[in-house]
Amino acid sequence: MKIISYNVNGIRAAIAKGFIEWLQNANPDLICLQEIKANEDQVPVSDIKKAGYPFQYYYPATKKGYSGVAILSKIKPNKVVFGTGISHMDFEGRNLRVDFNDVSVMSLYLPSGTNSDRLDHKFMFMEDFQNYIDTLKNEIPNLVICGDYNICHQAIDIHDPIRNAKVSGFLPEERLWLDTFMKTGFIDSFRFFNKQPNQFSWWSYRAGSRGNNKGWRIDYCLVSDTLKDKLKRALILPEAKHSDHCPVLVELK
After folding, report:
1. CA neighbor of 109 nearest in space, from 216, 37, 18, 206
2. pLDDT-derived band at 213, boundaries 50, 70, 90
3. Catalytic site residue 102?
């Protein structure tokens, strides 16, 4: 199973930049999208179906043009779960899960902490999400949690760890949460295969950041420890340029 995760920063804008054609060429079995910023009736679902993805699930935010996640799949899941049942997460459309026989795949869009109010909300979200996953693992041990976590895990994952040490997304408390979350039973699939620096998945639109590769690695495909022997490869795909993020990929045997 080849899985891609991609924060498209507006699915309609990404489609205008060739997203559907790229998707056909990339050819994942399923793709987890974040920040779709659209309702299903605003998306050309028939074009996506023609591209090979008949099973499409959209979970938009209550606020139009904001947040939202989706999963597009070639394979029909056994079950689709919209949200977590936790209201402060779900009204912003931040979590969608599809269950198959041997694995469940989740599209997650964790909040950013752009100001003090949102940072407090982010920490509340992180704590509640940890508790949600701790419970879910008892029911579903084989999880792949794909998405935009809005956190760089280690200094190797950000272009300037010194100057960004007090910036949300690289705060010690955020990094500790992500580290702790991984240690509850998840593998950072990209770092499982690749230990090289300067591997990023998001770049600011300002000051030529992408061209100069001054980025952050904040998009992950975290895989349950139970799937360790199934890991085949994991990649970042920076050549895809439909967003300020790029896709990340994991493939399971």
Report:
1. 37
2. very high
3. no
